[in-house]
Design goal:
The structure holds two protein chains of two kinds. Chain A is mainly alpha-helical. Chain A has one domain. The two termini of chain A are about 35 Å apart. By secondary structure, chain B is an alpha/beta fold. Chain B has a single domain, classed as FAD/NAD(P)-binding domain. In chain B, about 25% of the residues lie in helices and about 15% in strands. Chain B has 13 helices and 17 strands. In chain B, strands 1, 2, 6, 7, 8, 9 and 17 form a seven-stranded mixed β-sheet that branches. Chain B is globular and about 70 Å long. Chain B starts with 16 loop residues before the first strand and ends with a helix. The interface between A and B is large, with 80 and 101 residues.
């Protein structure tokens, strides 16, 4: 995979990639998906997926839970990412349905192939699940990604990864990311207004001092 | 999104106004303000919608992925190829603001001036093989009063005299720089150790409130986002309200211009545009000013081809769309021991211009550039791909790295020259059409080899600086050909010779007396990045020139 040198292209790669997924999306539907995830995550009643069958939802949730696992802090499972994805596939990410429809059976086949005694991906233990995911994730890496849109397994994995990240890290004030667990994890405060000093390095800053005049540089550096 | 109530129509398309301005961005907004203040009747046709501060959410998906503020690749698809012998492929190639206020709404607001060298580079360094480098028909001294006008009129914060490399200025900044960020402190410390000269970033962001506009609240959703408190000095916050206040200017959103009409004598008579329902209207005007950006301005001229102008309107030189310059850019990302919390605040904090003019004999390539200290990565983008190379992309270690790095990451951004290469261009795609049935924008672009060497060289300086400041870790990537465009420069260049330029120093097209162009397309060289300051200065100057010409009956 081509490693992109440019920050802007690098950011755009994520924008472009996601655009393929969040294509011609419909904003109220997206908010609804997030609210849905939010509500479902808080709800104590049994989860009711709408696009996925309950069995499929369990599989997708199990994948997302290996992407952002539950550790000493909440992971994708606790933040209801599965409901974000479920609603997304019925609304603004309809064009990604096929990726899941094709990807889930391929995932099960791969699980069976690698672990014949295991009934399904979700029934495998975490180590087995990671092995299966490593086998389908391909070599996409190095801090960038290309969004797969086809039925290939790496594309499926990348799609679930991107959806999991979006559901987990989206601005909690505008949709999803219930209780801001994603932002809490990375240390991003939820305030809208901040005042300097912002962090460790600027707290004792003495103020800007103009340096002695320079000679014009000539490229010797 | 709350739709803003439609502005009361001031003019009918059939009213022959003094000026129709196409595009409401950095140049169009300034021209609208200045010309309407000078007593002219002005209609601004903007292809995008009109949003207000209430619409400027922090929602990353809505803004960055769904193109709330930017051109949408489904409606207006692009194609790209590296060289003219290739067939261009359908991909997103261009990003620009497609709303009232244009790209200025979501820009970084990094607002340094071009230096003297940028206007006279061809005379100073001679020809550069593989490039069609030219001097501007104006100098830094001609533009200096207008740079000052931008700073005072729209609001730029900064510290005069803080960079020994700054060109001369007639006035200090109207307000002090914004507070330093952690990235700025470590950058300053590292640069000083190396004997370099960092200075507070001049930014088109208010450090002090102005009427109707707040000072920056450091919300942290800046680059790529609209400002919810009007602190960013954009066309929308700082120019258009003043234009409307004159009572002589109408901003007409959702108006997509696709042709400039001429009469039998070759004069422009107005602009044909689609309204929201795709009905076509002709806005009549005594003169037409195109400020549609460096991609859409040449596209509109090419779409306006006619019997009189078979190769595109105002294209007797053949230069329309050519010599596209995107500015070289690279990033070196670093992780520090303690939290910087650089997600708070505007993006850049400190800038360095020690390498603005490099000696090609010594470094082995032409060009120059700047470095800045910043952090501009919002949470989804960060989790998607801002961890160091080799970090797991999922799983517990991935999660732990996100948790540790987000508050400790900063970037040093390298900005550099792009040489004007004739093949680098915007043109009409022969096959692909947009949602209105018009030919799609095709980009042809391959960076000049010197531009790529420059970025690698600047990235190496960024790495030295980060070593000097004690970063725990830093990384960068080798420069590569750019196939996505943000800075859209040079495609209708200014010049004195009608054979080798599209507009003259008054921004008038050489071919059509009452047709003017002013935006990134006017630039003859790319500077070292950060073109919006110069685009706004050109727009203030163009307004003076066009006013004088009109008052003398010469338009």
């Amino acid at each position: 995979m081509h490693i992109d040198p440019s920050r802007r292209q690098f950011l755009v790669r994520s924008a472009t990639g996601l655009s393929a997924v969040w294509l011609s999306t419909n904003w109220p539907a997206l908010v609804a998906a997030a609210d849905h995830a939010h509500g479902q995550a808080k709800s104590t009643s049994p989860h009711k997926p709408e696009f996925f069958t309950p069995e499929e939802a369990l599989e997708v949730e199990s994948i997302s839970a290996r992407i952002i696992p539950t550790t000493e802090t909440p992971g994708a499972r606790e933040s209801g990412v599965i409901y974000f994805i479920d609603r997304a596939l019925l609304t603004f990410a309809k064009d990604q349905q096929k990726t899941y429809r094709d990807g889930l059976p391929a995932l099960q086949a791969q699980t069976k192939k690698m672990f014949p005694s295991v009934k399904s991906f979700s029934a495998a233990n975490p180590e087995q699940q990671d092995e299966v995911l490593r086998s389908i994730a391909g070599n996409a890496g190095g801090g960038n990604y290309i969004f797969g849109t086809g039925a290939d397994s790496a594309g499926f994995f990348e799609t679930v990864r991107a959806h999991t990240i979006c559901g987990f890290f989206v601005d909690p004030d505008t949709r999803g990311n219930p209780n801001g667990v994603g932002w809490k994890l990375i240390g991003r405060d939820r305030q809208h207004t901040f005042q300097s000093p912002f962090g460790y390095y600027d707290k004792d800053y003495p103020g800007f001092q103009v340096a002695p005049a320079a000679s014009k540089p000539d490229g010797d550096a | 999104m709350k739709p803003r109530p439609p502005a009361t129509s001031k003019y009918q398309p059939s009213d022959e106004v003094d000026f129709v301005i196409i595009g409401s961005g950095a140049a169009g907004g300034i021209l609208a303000k200045e010309l309407s203040a000078n007593g002219f009747r002005v209609v601004v046709l903007e292809q995008g919608p009109r949003l207000s501060e209430a619409d400027f959410t922090h929602d990353e998906i809505k803004v960055l992925q769904e193109d709330l503020l930017t051109n949408h690749p489904d409606l207006q698809p692009n194609t790209y190829r590296e060289t003219p012998d290739q067939t261009a492929k359908h991909q997103r190639a261009v990003y620009y603001g497609r709303i009232v206020g244009g790209t200025s709404v979501h820009f970084t607001a990094n607002f340094w001036r071009f230096h003297e060298i940028d206007f006279i580079e061809r005379s100073k360094v001679g020809p550069v093989p593989g490039a069609n480098l030219a001097d501007w028909p104006i100098t830094y001294a001609d533009l200096e009063p207008y740079y000052t006008k931008v700073e005072w009129d729209i609001g730029v914060s900064g510290l005069a005299g803080s960079s020994p490399f700054d060109p001369p200025r007639s006035k200090p900044y109207p307000m002090p720089p914004l507070p330093v960020k952690g990235c700025g402190v470590v950058f300053e410390r590292g640069a000083r150790k190396l004997g370099w000269h960092p200075f507070p970033a001049p930014l088109a962001i208010l450090s002090q409130p102005r009427p109707g506009r707040s000072a920056c609240i450091n919300c942290g959703f800046c680059l790529g986002f609209g400002c919810e408190v009007g602190a960013k000095s954009t066309s929308l916050s700082a120019a258009i309200p003043a234009a409307e206040k004159t009572g002589r200017c109408e901003i007409r959103p959702n108006s997509y211009v696709h042709k400039i009409e001429l009469d039998a004598t070759g004069r422009a008579t107005g602009a044909l545009y689609f309204d929201e329902k795709k009905a076509t209207h002709l806005q009549r005007a005594k003169a037409v000013i195109v400020c549609a950006n460096g991609a859409e301005t040449p596209r509109l001229l090419l779409l306006s081809a006619s019997k009189q102008h078979p190769n595109g309107l105002a294209n007797s030189s053949g230069y329309v769309g050519k010599h596209l310059m995107l500015n070289g850019n690279g990033v070196t990302t670093a992780v520090f021991e303690h939290p910087l919390n650089d997600y708070k605040g505007f993006a850049p904090s400190r800038v360095l211009h020690d390498f603005y003019e490099l000696d090609a004999q010594k470094v082995g390539f032409h060009g120059g550039g700047g470095l800045d200290a910043r952090f501009d990565i919002t949470p989804i983008a960060f989790a998607t791909g801002a961890l160091p190379p080799g970090t797991p992309r999922w799983g517990a270690d991935y999660k732990a790295a996100l948790a540790h790095n987000f508050t400790r990451t900063m970037e040093v951004f390298s900005h550099g020259t792009s040489l004007p290469v004739e093949n680098n261009s915007f043109s009409l795609d022969p096959d692909l059409k947009d949602a209105w049935g018009l030919p799609a924008l095709r980009m042809t672009y391959k960076d000049h080899p010197d531009d790529l060497k420059l970025i690698d060289w600047l990235n190496a300086r960024a790495s030295e600086l980060l070593d000097a400041t004690g970063a725990v870790k830093h990384w960068t990537f080798p420069a590569g050909v750019q196939n996505v465009a943000f800075h859209l420069l040079g495609t209708c260049r200014m010049g004195s010779d009608p054979k080798t330029s599209v507009i003259n120093a008054d921004h008038r097209t050489h071919d059509v007396k009452n047709l003017f162009l002013c935006d990134g397309s006017s630039l003859v060289t790319s500077g070292r990045g950060q073109p919006t300051m110069t685009i706004m200065a050109l727009a203030f100057r163009a307004a003076d020139r066009i006013t004088a010409l009109t008052k003398r009956g010469e338009v």
